[in-house]
Amino acid sequence: MPLRRLAHLTLLVLALLTGLAGYYASQLRFNYNFNDFYPAGDPDLDYYQGYTQRFGNDNDYLLLGLEAPAGQTVFAPRFLAQVDSLTREARGLPHVLSVTSPTTLTNPVVEGFGFYNLPYLHPDVPASRAQDSTLIFRTPGLVGNVFSRDARAVALVFQLTPDLEKPPGDSLLASLRQGLARAGLPAERAHFAGRLVAQSVFVDRLQWELVVFMSLSVLLVTGLLWLTFRTWWGVLLPLVVVLGAILWGLGVMGACGISIDLMTALLPLMLFVVGMSDTIHIISRYVSELGYGAGKKDALRITIKESGFGSGLSALTTSIGFFTLMTSTIRPIHNFGLFTGIAVLLAFVLSFTLLPAMLVLLNKPALREPRKHGHDWDGVLGRLFSGVLRQRRLIYVVSALVLAASIGLSTRVRINSSLLDDLSKNDPVRQDFAFFDTHFAGVRPFELELKPVGNRTIYDPAVLREIEQIEGYLGHTYGLQFQASPATLVKATRKALHGGELAEYRLPADSTELKPLVAKLMLLRKKPEFRALALPDGSAGRLTGRMADVGSVRADELNRNLRHYLRTQLDTTVLRTRLTGSSNLIDKNNENLTLNMIQGMAIDIAMVTLIVLLLFRSVRMTLVVLVPNLLPILVVAGVMGLAGVNMKVSTSIIFTIAFGIAVDDTIHFISKLRLTLGHEPNIFKAVRRTYLLAGKAVIVTSLILVGGFCTLLFSSFDGTFYVGLLIGLTLLFGVVAELTLLPLLILGVYKKRGSKLAAAPDAVPERV
Description:
The protein has a four-stranded antiparallel beta sheet, with helices on both faces. A four-stranded antiparallel beta sheet has the order 8-9-7-10, with helices on both faces. It has a two-stranded antiparallel ribbon with strand order 3-4. The protein has helices at residues 3-26, 43-55, 77-91, 129-138, 166-183, 195-229, 232-255, 267-274, 276-291, 296-323, 331-351, 354-361, 376-390, 392-410, 428-439, 461-478, 486-497, 511-523, 528-531, 552-569, 582-616, 619-643, 654-676, 683-710, 718-749; strands at residues 61-67, 96-100, 106-111, 114-119, 153-160, 190-193, 444-452, 482-484, 541-547, 575-580. It is elongated and about 105 Å long. Helix 10 (296-323) runs antiparallel to helix 11. By secondary structure, the chain is an alpha+beta fold. It has 25 helices and ten strands. This is MMPL family transporter. It comes from Hymenobacter setariae. Keywords: Cell membrane, Membrane, Transmembrane, Transmembrane helix.
């Protein structure tokens, strides 16, 4: 079949496949569920899901903090009137199940046959302000939950529809902001916190930033392609191939029924940057052949034959780097690794089908007048190669010093994360969350399930005493500043039955006193506020609360001490407990980060090692390849330790991705060396020729990769910022090692006479 007809047929088939991919890509929807970031398949997750069915989610709340006007306390009548107006409006909003507000709080009192709810606040009676404030600050559960410690702010606690998704959540937030304006409460004195806020902010910003990053990457890559090839098709064709690969990758996701989430949303940007490598290597080799005077068909034939092997191996190693992320127990990271790895392989397929077909159909493919003495890069790369040989001792010494320093600094890297540590400390949203840590109980949920042993119920006297003991530890030692449990229900009921006297807020002295209290509680057992703390049959209970966001390292320490306390001080023949909750699952993710990263890196290194062994059948060459690619990884780990960057979910993907990408240039280099050895047995000459042939593509692809990842430096998310910075640094250090350390190691290992490398059969002669 004539070559042009084959090219037309190829384009037709690819166009049909692209149309199909476009259809499935159009079916993609965004997944806003933060619960997907919990460790999939973990027994603690299964337990938590059962726990939420019994007691509800621990993060289905929204906090709204309102500061009193400057110079006033929260007991100012006008401020309380504004808060009350907002409270009444909020109660009628969709998805709001209940509102806890200072203006609607009541002190229940039972007298004779009457039941009364006495308000804590009497804003219309100025003379009662001192008495009201005294009662509030003496009543457990009010200060830190609804009233700030300094009486300068109040908090409204909204209980929301379970697992409220982003669109209705955004509508609710907008309605509340409008309600603030109608109530005359300035927006600058209002502070929102909760899962709903984080969900809205993260998704909106990420969507916007991805548009910005893609635009910047397109501009950057277009500029670098133009500077490199100086022709319209040298710019347009790589863009067409990579954009087609992105569409195919998204189409595969759509066909598999996978939604776009906070991780897979990075696939287009990641593939745009990474997928450009093969096209640049192909066009660079094609342009070189045209520069040497070869015709279009011969130049394309030589290019495909020589670049196909190396590009295939590099696509394989890059995809393996992403596939190793599938070891993560976090579903979004697992999906990101799987489908980005598939998309990288699809980019390779398009690079060797779509790109050659378009090159065949070009009418004027010649880039420049034919040259018989090489091309522009030969002189630059030749001088660079000579300089590397002259400074070999200095390069070895510097590399050893950098390696030693990096290993030392990398020991300072810690696994630690907080609820919003991907936002900078000066971010308004993070400051709003910090407002509740400073003035109220905090925003980090705490959950402990309580299970009576034997025939006891949660209202058994011995069980209640154990719960009270746990509450004491949590309040004084653990740092839980707000908590509620079945014991607080019993105490509150006892207080109500004794005229609302604070001195009566305690557990009954004996079973005789407890029995009528429990009888009254059982009448209210189906009310939501009671069901949230104890099951109707009393078979289990819940100790819930909030605390400051202390970070995962401190939380792990607190939880270890708590578990030790529960094992040693709790009477397990009376009550058994289990720590659970969304915060516990997030902490569990951090525990798995190191294991997942080590597993991913081990798989990546093992696969690259296997590839090089099969390619060269030489253990020495395998070590030569690994050293200049592991060195940048260690350097970046040292940079993290020096800069105090913590390992967390967002930064845990850096090392496996960076190694998989960085090893690409090495694969291209050694594959070209293998071809060169087919007609040049002298190792020195073969390395020099390979250096000149591969050097241009290595430099250009590295610049594009580094530049593409550096666009992430403009992100408002610290996690995204560090992904861009650290992967960019890895690739930058990698290309330096590639052009300095790699050729020296090859020549050093094989300098002895008789040392040979496996050569590729039927290698095409190189022209340098």
